Amino acid sequence: MEDIILAIDLGATNILYGVANVKGDILYKNVLATNSNLGANYVLSKLANIIERLLAEHNKKGQVKAVIVATPGPLSHLDKIVYNSPNLHWNRVAIKKELQARLNHPTLPIMIEKDTNMAVLGEYYFGQDRQYSNLIYITVSTGIGGGIIINDRLYRGANGGAGEIGHLVVKPNGERCGCGQYGCLEALASGRAIAKQAQERIIQVGFPHIGSKEVGELARQGNSLAIAILDEALDNLARGLANVVNLFNPNIMVLGGGVIEGLQDLWLDRLVEKVLGSVFKLNAQNLKIEMTKLGGDIGLYGCVAAYVFFKEGQRV
Amino acid sequence: MEDIILAIDLGATNILYGVANVKGDILYKNVLATNSNLGANYVLSKLANIIERLLAEHNKKGQVKAVIVATPGPLSHLDKIVYNSPNLHWNRVAIKKELQARLNHPTLPIMIEKDTNMAVLGEYYFGQDRQYSNLIYITVSTGIGGGIIINDRLYRGANGGAGEIGHLVVKPNGERCGCGQYGCLEALASGRAIAKQAQERIIQVGFPHIGSKEVGELARQGNSLAIAILDEALDNLARGLANVVNLFNPNIMVLGGGVIEGLQDLWLDRLVEKVLGSVFKLNAQNLKIEMTKLGGDIGLYGCVAAYVFFKEGQRV
Question: Which residue of chain A has the CA closest to B182?
């Protein structure tokens, strides 16, 4: 009977959850809407419900060794408090404590990590097989975020706030961001930003809902406004990533998230060219930039990686 | 008889050099113009000359254990090659090899490190007494640069290019930078940038030479153009530092360099307020931002710190 873990990737839109063994085989997975507009209490109870149901089904012989939860940040690392989350709209929620209080399993270990940190652990361990000591993972999805591996360890900074790549200000006095600042990368190049631009600038849309996917479709059909919107977003994304490369000089930068996956054919080659062409030559040398192969399950893989590092006694 | 080292801080303008013991007492120091416009060969021979003279004077009993040189970057860490240095105008100079070839002391260890890395080592070890695991040092001088301590170790990145804080693009399509890009922090808030603005915008200067110091004097006298120039530079500097804080979440950010030292009374409080007010609350919590107490000798202290770490067998 093999040890298994419950892996939960809490997103602002969906909760992806599953059961996995320590080799990274995902034995079961499912997705539910987060409905974060209903508030923290609702979401926490929903998470507790999911965990209880998974335990009832998969823990008959006590084989579930831990619950690992990826949460949107900012997450204070030591006390596991979510602060002023622009995406969840949680102001100060002690996610670990609140979750434990809602569960009937006082001895079951719960590990909480910021979603982007979990993703970079998954990429480092399962995606790249631990071959790169300095790896940065960037998600371009509804929002934009990043996780950082430095010297083969997760880098969280002084209290868990490192890696807020989406909130690099790349355009002073630019569009307002959910975080309250103006001109953040997330406000210029995320799925939400592209959709907002499209709603404002593309009049004849022909789509009941217009998001980055639809803008991509229009661009492929030659729509000049859609092309302009994506070009601007791409320029800003490249500028943000170039800043990250000049600061961190990673071995590899891995990209993931629904938006960039959907726009890969339009964006990836140009993005790589723009970034490599604008950073210091030394920093461009040998730099790999590629898409993750883990797709939307990267957070679940990250949960497994976090558990493995924890079991190995490594400081992740 | 105590062990001593030769410490050399090569700058684009001056070469500061000295003799120090491992406790960080600077026993002798002097400064010479670099005259970097005369080319790499000239500068390397000058460095070799300085070293030979210091050895003749201070190594009579073999007490000099190493020569430690801080150089402007970008510096490829493994092969010690300076690449495309915007300040020295060196394109590809193997500084360690070239220096060794000019010296008559084949067994004397030579350590080379990027100047900003050396400075952050000095600050971490002598300035802050190793009490902060995640420390960022930023120099605002003729140029702008940074050094990074992560988890109590110098962070160089994959090949030595980490920490190029001066080349964060904070204003797309902004002023052209010496590195070839547009809108880099260094092109907007360095001493050179402030002087350039002053030369372009302040007509009645009353100063034979106008640099950041003179602009500061004019601002203190109420000159509105000087005030505007410094306010713009400060805004950009704050934006750059806020980006760094959101990415690295350091315990402490230490500032140094002639320009910010000269403008401290006008800038420091406002800079701290701007940075703390624009980063994530989690990242602002407990963040210290202060001036270095090591002044212009920070590079020399860094040479000592680098030697001490090397002797202790630590990977700096």
Answer: A278
